[in-house]
């Protein structure tokens, strides 16, 4: 085992955390694979800049280009404890779990048959992704695209065909619009 497992104070601190618990701290370092958080009520980590760690997918519900678009070194954060990473001796955290899910808020107000305006964000072999609200994108499957060619950045009218709340998926049609 590594140096983290040799630190009884760190091990005891992490082992006493509970899933869903809110932990506060300061962003200590930003790496390409995630963010280290120096926790307020916790020991220092023997290797990493912080005992807390937020992976890229757990930073935000919305898409972002750079981690620095979401957090900055020195910024205060409150995060939800997800799990004790026994390999690295760190607290896996989620920043996005402290924020409302824009998809669920969208799904509360929009159902099948609703016409929306949106912007094409990505073209893929099986269709096009369209942003219809902040933090909410839906797929227009290839068979639901019209013969009109669309490009990334185009504004289009779409119709909601299905909202899958559980899997956070939105299906759209250009034909029905």
UniProtKB/TrEMBL annotation:
One of its GO terms (molecular function) is mRNA binding. It comes from the Bacteria. GO terms for biological process: translation. Residues 20-96, 113-175 form the S1 motif domain. PROSITE patterns: S1 (PS50126). It holds the Pfam family S1. GO terms for cellular component: cytosolic small ribosomal subunit. Keywords: Ribonucleoprotein, Ribosomal protein. Belongs to the bacterial ribosomal protein bS1 family. This is S1 RNA-binding domain-containing protein.
């Amino acid at each position: 085992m590594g140096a983290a497992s040799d630190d009884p104070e760190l091990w005891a601190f992490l082992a006493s955390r509970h899933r869903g618990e809110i932990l506060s701290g300061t962003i200590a370092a930003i790496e390409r694979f995630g963010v280290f958080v120096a926790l307020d009520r916790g020991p220092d980590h023997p290797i990493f800049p912080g005992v807390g760690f937020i992976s890229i997918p757990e930073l935000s519900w919305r898409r972002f280009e750079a981690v620095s678009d979401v957090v900055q070194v020195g910024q205060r954060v409150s995060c939800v404890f997800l799990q004790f990473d026994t390999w690295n001796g760190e607290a896996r955290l989620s920043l996005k779990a402290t924020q409302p899910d824009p998809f669920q808020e969208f799904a509360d107000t929009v159902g099948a048959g609703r016409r929306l305006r949106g912007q094409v964000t990505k073209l893929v072999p099986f269709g096009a992704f369209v942003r219809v609200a902040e933090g909410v994108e839906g797929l227009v499957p290839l068979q639901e695209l019209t013969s009109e060619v669309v490009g990334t950045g185009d504004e289009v009218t779409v119709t909601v065909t299905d909202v899958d709340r559980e899997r956070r998926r939105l299906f759209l049609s250009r034909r029905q619009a």
